[in-house]
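Collaborator request, handled under Task 6.
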Amino acid sequence: MINYSTITESNNFIVLDQYKKFVVEEPNAGYQTEGSLEREFIRDLQAQGYEYLQDINSHDALVKNLRAQLQRLNNVVFSDAEWRRFLEEYLDKPSDSLIEKTRKIHDDYIYDFVFDNGRIQNIYLLDKKNLANNAVQVINQFEQTGSYDNRYDVTILVNGLPLVHIELKKRGVAIREAFNQIHRYSKESFNKENSLFKYIQIFVISNGTDTRYFANTTKRDKNSYDFTMNWATAKNTLIKDLKDFTATFLQKHTLLNVLVNYCVFDVSDTLLIMRPYQIAATERILWKIKSSYLAKNWSNTDSGGYIWHTTGSGKTLTSFKAARLATELDFIEKVFFVVDRKDLDYQTMKEYQRFSPDSVNGSESTAGLKRNIEKDDNKIIVTTIQKLNNLMKSEDKLPIYDKQVVFIFDECHRSQFGEAQKNLTRKFKKYYQFGFTGTPIFPENALGKDTTKSVFGSPLHSYIITDAIRDEKVLKFKVDYNDVRPQFK
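Structure tokens returned to the collaborator:
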């Protein structure tokens, strides 16, 4: 029995509030073969609604199934000539590298195809609006020849495209062996000409007792294993066992959500997959905005909250994703990302533009900030708290004051507790306010009466330094103790 409870029932959320481990008889590491682990894994996927295609182990069979799946998704029928043309023009151009194919999943997933009779139709690779429309299948022992013959363990197809690949080792074998094998396949056959395996977005490696995932653009060097991640619950409890990972991360809706919403293909053509705590924080912010909106409860500490994520844990990517997904809510007019120091304004702008150059507007001055607010095309505005405060002091009546807006404060320290905060609560009528911090202010370390909670609301998610050190995601601390008490005679 799979026991997990979601935070809230919705099409958009995936984070587990809690998860009870499977209680299974552990097979003796010496007795369960790799083949038996693979069969058990596929049975678990089938039990979760995956369709198992036993006979697809060659390129031609893969392409035939891909045609059937795209015809179903788009409600069309290709003639043989049209299908060949669709492959050559768009889906499987011989010149396409891994980067071009990844871009087709994230940005160019809709193609205007001209049928032989002159009719033009949008052909979708993925339905990103309604995730349940996407078909999820599993294949194993697929054979492909590049510079060597390779046979891959287990691959997950979404609408016929191989998007997730899992490499297994039997219990007792180091998980790095699976990582090294993927590295070898990447050099030998994954990326050969006309390989649909260039569409792979996520790699999963497991030896049964430890399971990790990482992006296909993770650089292959001696340090790249450090970029592999365990899945975890919202309370940062690691989910390592393959059975538990299958029931959570590979649950169909969760996997599709990670592929569609929680992968970021940045302007340097690097695919980033968010870590579990980043996803959890993003989802808690979105959940809070939606629930506050439905309850018509905005512009107070109950409609917001703060995220306590330790320094160096990737707060910029988390805040960017939360801002991006918040702009997709129909009722939100603008998302303000507010930073403190002027040099940080430029730095944050560069960071945000690295993830998505078109979605962000920075402002040179208070007048520039006002102009950006009036523009319709950019919904995310990066500004400093000083510029925002100057605008509120100089402009009594702006249309934005009456619209639904989200404020995300980076490093919500004491500077947010002063005049600007009072002006914001006075001027904006329908806002939702969130703060990111690595060092929250509690009553015991507050200089005045204000704390992070009293300004922003309750903590929505935390990932503190002890979690990060355990996960080896930040540099370790070296603490030297020096006794500096003076020695008196």
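The cover message to the collaborator said: "DSSP finds 15 helices and 21 strands in the chain. Confidence is low (pLDDT under 50) at residues 5-11. Please let us know whether this matches your experimental observations."
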